[in-house]
Specification:
This protein is an alpha+beta fold. The chain folds into two domains: 2-157, no CATH class; 160-348, Nucleotidyltransferase, domain 5, CATH 3.30.420. The protein is built from eleven helices and 14 strands. The chain has helices at 15-44, 50-56, 61-64, 68-85, 191-194, 196-204, 208-236, 247-250, 256-262, 264-277, 327-347; strands spanning 2-9, 100-103, 109-111, 115-117, 121-123, 136-143, 149-157, 166-172, 176-180, 185-187, 237-243, 281-285, 315-317, 324-326. Helix 1 crosses helix 4, helix 2 (50-56) packs antiparallel against helix 4 (68-85) and helix 7 (208-236) crosses helix 10. The radius of gyration is 24 Å and the shape is elongated. 28% of the residues are buried.
Length: 348
Amino acid sequence: MATKTIKIRIKDANEKAILKKMAGKCNFVWNYCNRTAYEAIRSQSKWLNGFDLQKLTAGSSKGLRINCSTIQEICAKHALNRSNNKKIKLRWRSKKSLGWIPFKKNSVQFKDGKGIYYGQEFKLFQPERIPAVGTHGAGQFCEDARGRWYLCISVKYEMPHIPAQGEVGIDLGLKTLATLSNGIKVKNGRYSRKMKTKLADAQRGGHKRRAKTIHAKIKNQRLDYLHKASTQIVLENKLIVVGKLSVKKLIKTKMAKSIHDAAPSMFKTMLEYKASALQRVYVEVNETNTTRTCSSCGVIPDSSPKGLKGLSVREWVCSECGAIHDRDINAALNILRLGHQSLMPEVA
């Protein structure tokens, strides 16, 4: 059994105002947890976990008129975020924050194949995507920048066995999103750059709704492209080796806009969870010197591209063995070799 999250849009009639009101109460609980946990550390040097916060908020559901499971989920999520980020206080949630209403598995019921019941019934678009009885887990109602509400819920499903024989190393980049060791190059969609003129016109004209629509279109196009590219790679290959691209460092440089447009981290995440669902082997390796190392003889020759000036060199000839290399394909081949080396102890 595999698990995935499905996202279904809620019909915007009277539901929008009701959900927005509930989200405001969720923000109140979040801010209470934030303030209480911070004061506990300052005054008592005590780190409150999710269970501590749940005890402090017990019985508040009646006064707030929201489901108690939602309050418990907010407390658990707040404690988890503080722990993961290693912070004593998180950001406050205000009226400008996008709506968020988490819930547990048994808090919702699906009605007549058309909607979901959570305190009251909410109609859904695409009712055929509603999960079967007993297959869904926890989830949340969430709002996007355009004020549209969605149901996001985890679903268990049977994954068919799809055999694959290929093995691929992947070199992530900006000019091309990914270069595969088999010579295939996944182009960078550059959706933000394609729409920058329309977006600039909307922003200069003060058309906020139009600007939000353009941003949503860019996001949807990027997601669609990344999903299709990652799915094809996972379907065709039993071993997927990816180089560890330092995205956090790159977004602090002049290439930040290109990094956000290409979304290599999102692409890697898709490859990883899809590989896990299809029982493929997914490996990440250190890509240091993979561009400079000759994939034919395995040495770093003097003719290999070096430093920032070498970034413009797309093809080079190995001075040791005479092999002609495409810069990115050579790196992908070396990444695949490193992936095999990292798996050798496990195979033994």
